[in-house]
Design goal:
Length: 333
């Protein structure tokens, strides 16, 4: 097995500089155990589990599948129904999970508990200013999301090509590049921009182990880079999802004069997307998350095949293509 060592792999004790970040309804032991076994760092999604007790069970289930490092994603967002974040945090600490991925709101209230337990923290950010704030708070690494990503890319609309480089120039802690990554060329590009690892979501959804309907995986392969839709822009909560009948209707209704989120809430329901699409395979039945990296995904593979092929391609690009690039430079008077 070829290994690619970076500051990220050394700091987090994994073989490869590849991350499978938390994904609602997808980041379960079935997927994350396979990612860990293949040498990358995967994150169970805490809030996919309805209760803290069920999260504890899922952590234990993942440990039955692998003895390699894996983490837990804890997304901090305001909700209509209060989330017992302190209880989820306590489960993570009690289980001695080695690393946590935080996202959404400021993770400061939870950092003391994680740090005192020796748990490393990676915080997801969509701007350099937010990444710097996280670094000042004492997180161990930052995952920086470019505009290409699935999920919430923020409101600045800065692509990864600029954002990752800007973050690398400003930060001193390891950086995980996120948004638009699916192959070895992307990994090499991220390293060249100053990142220490890449994060992939959509690529891992199109894996054999991802706990979603086969129609979702086939649709990702069939889609190209244009097959996403930005929704919720008018409510300053921009999200990138797969383009389908529901996402196009949401976008159209949101542009109507005086529209509010209540007007499209029934279409945007997370439960609707999970039931109709992820579980039921009705690709027009609800919202489902996907990034522009769909245009780079040509097949459904196991997690090990995905990771091994990315590392092999990155190795070939670095040694065969970039290794000889100095031949193309010429000194001129």
């Amino acid at each position: 097995m070829t290994r690619l060592s970076t500051a990220f792999t050394e700091h987090f004790g994994v073989d490869q500089p590849i991350v499978c970040g938390g994904m609602t309804a997808v980041g379960t032991a079935q997927l994350i155990g396979a990612v860990a076994e293949a040498g990358a760092l995967g994150f169970l999604t805490a809030l996919t589990q309805p209760t803290p007790q069920e999260l504890a069970t899922e952590i234990a289930r993942c440990r039955e599948m692998t003895d390699r490092p894996f983490g837990v994603n804890l997304t901090l967002l305001p909700t209509i129904t209060p989330v017992p974040y302190d209880e989820y945090c306590a489960v993570i600490v009690d289980a001695s999970v080695p690393v946590v991925e935080t996202a959404g709101n400021n993770p400061a209230p939870f950092l003391p508990a994680f740090k005192s337990a020796g748990i490393k923290v990676i915080h997801k950010a969509v701007s350099v200013r937010h990444a710097l704030k996280a670094q000042d708070l004492g997180v161990d690494a930052v995952s920086i999301d470019g505009f290409e990503c699935a999920g919430h890319p923020g409101e600045d609309d800065v692509s990864g090509l600029v954002l990752i480089r800007a973050a690398a120039r400003a930060l001193t802690i390891p950086i995980v590049a996120s948004g638009g990554f699916a192959d070895g060329a992307g990994l090499v590009a991220a390293l060249a921009l100053g990142a220490d690892a890449i994060n992939m979501g959509t690529r891992f959804v199109a894996s054999h182990e991802a706990p979603v309907h086969i129609n979702v995986k086939k649709q990702i392969v069939a889609n190209d880079e244009r097959a996403t839709q930005l929704v919720f822009r008018e409510f300053r909560n921009t999200a990138r999802v797969a383009r389908n009948r529901v996402s196009e209707e949401i976008a159209a209704r949101s542009r109507e004069l005086g529209a509010t989120f209540a007007d499209i809430a029934h279409l945007a329901s997370g439960q609707r997307g999970r039931t109709a699409v992820l579980a039921g395979g009705d690709m027009e039945g609800g919202l489902w998350w996907a990034g522009q990296s769909q245009g780079l995904i040509d097949d459904i593979l196991t997690c090990r095949q995905i990771i091994d092929s990315i590392i092999a391609d990155a190795h070939d690009i670095i040694t065969a293509r970039l290794g000889g690039i100095d031949r193309n430079f010429r000194r001129v008077p």
